[in-house]
Amino acid sequence: MNNNSVTEKTKNLIKNKKFIAKAINHNILEDLGFFVIKNAFPLDTVEKFRMNFLNLFEKKKLHKTKQHPVEVKIEGRKLFEKIYKDKNLKKIVKGFFNGRVGSDFFRIVKKDYKNSSAVFCHQDTGYQMGNFDRFSLFISLTNNNNLNGGMVIYPSTHKFGYLGDAGEISKKITKKYFKICPNLKEGDVLVMHSALWHESNKNFKKTNRIYLEIHIQNLDDPNTKYNIIGKSKKVIKPLFDRNNIFSNSRVSRIIKFKKQIRLLEKKYLINDK
Ligand SMILES: [Fe+2]
């Protein structure tokens, strides 16, 4: 794989708008690392999820995750778990993983008038566990585009694989590749390989930009929590929990060092007085 082989084929597919249709073309998805399904969910379904979410969010029963720019956790809420039984979702995922499709998490990713920051370029692989081929389905609960901080993607960059760490990809690298922000209407779905580089701009319009993100993976992955399609045990219990898989992780070490620094600062500040 070199820069040109990504760029030439990719540019043609993008120029001819091959990434957008009413049903997924899996060959194109494999080439580009993303696909847009138009009108994948009817507007009444979209409105139901959006209103339920906004209602709970405004009543402060749901909150943006601290330290995360856009995430609102909704797991454990039966109201939203209904999405896994939705026939339109089953229709979207049936062409993945030989028809055995599960999920390990789902969430809302939201920007609005108050929380409108840009998100730096990254790939999701370093934040996830399990097999390499996994995808996020971003269901547009609002019209999402370049003006309100819609998802921006770097086509075909998933072909570079896992980059070996999580975090911001250097602009010295990303500037060599082109990027697009698909103009999504309510009910459209952006399907994205988890290794694809992506970012988002500031929400200039300050209107709601809401995606319901469903992360899909092979049903047999050890951390599957939800069955979407394919036979499995009635109750799925993940073999691993991402919160306690490491006894000593990079993140836990950082937290430990920060605590030690705080203690030292406290000690020396007290001694200084
Ligand atoms: Fe991401």
Q: How does this structure look, described?
A:
With 273 residues, the protein is α+β, with helices and mostly antiparallel strands. The chain folds into 2 domains: 3-242, q2cbj1_9rhob like domain (Jelly Rolls); 247-273. Helices cover 27% and strands 20% of the residues. It has 7 helices and 11 strands. The chain has helices spanning 3-15, 26-32, 43-58, 78-81, 87-93, 171-174, 250-272, and strands spanning 20-21, 34-37, 71-73, 101-111, 119-122, 135-140, 151-153, 189-193, 198-200, 209-218, 226-229. The strands form 2 sheets. Strands 1, 2, 3, 4, 6, 8, 10 and 11 form an 8-stranded mixed sheet that branches. The longest helix is centred in the C-terminal third of the chain and has 23 residues, at 250-272. It is globular, with a radius of gyration of 20 Å. The chain binds fe (ii) ion. Fe (ii) ion is lined by residues 122, 124, 198.
Give me some keywords for this one.
273 residues, alpha+beta, Jelly Rolls, 2 domains, eight-stranded mixed beta sheet, three-stranded antiparallel beta sheet, 7 helices, 11 strands, 27% helix, 20% strand, globular, binds fe (ii) ion
How is this fold's topology laid out?
Elements (H helix, E strand, L loop, with lengths): L2 H13 L4 E2 L4 H7 L1 E4 L5 H16 L12 E3 L4 H4 L5 H7 L7 E11 L7 E4 L12 E6 L10 E3 L17 H4 L14 E5 L4 E3 L8 E10 L7 E4 L20 H23 L1
The structure holds fe (ii) ion.
Largest sheet: 8 strands, mixed
Measured on Cα atoms, how large is the radius of gyration? 20 Å
SSE run: HEHEHEHHEEEEHEEEEH
Helix content: 25-40%
Structural class: alpha+beta
Instruction: Return the CATH architecture of the largest domain.
Output: Sandwich
According to CATH, what is the topology of the largest domain? Jelly Rolls
Number of strands: 11
Shape: globular
- Ligands: fe (ii) ion
